[in-house]
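Q: Sequence in, structure out?
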Amino acid sequence: MNLVVTLEHLRKARRFVVDGEKCMVRQRKIVDRMDRQGFDTLNAILFLEYLEEMQSQYVALRDQLERQLLVLVRPDE
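A: Exactly. Output:
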């Protein structure tokens, strides 16, 4: 992968991580509100766990792209 493509993928990956954090915060608030109101929270918790799993994949991809970028910028190190 060349430098320009890697930078673009990294930009998108960083955006996914930020957006993912926002989604998880919203979902945690939903779970808390449902719990306070006495609703069954099982599906909301399962969805939160799904979001957390996806977030870990996005973070791993972002980290991988950052490592690739370092290799492209400093190939001798």
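The chain has a mean pLDDT of 95.
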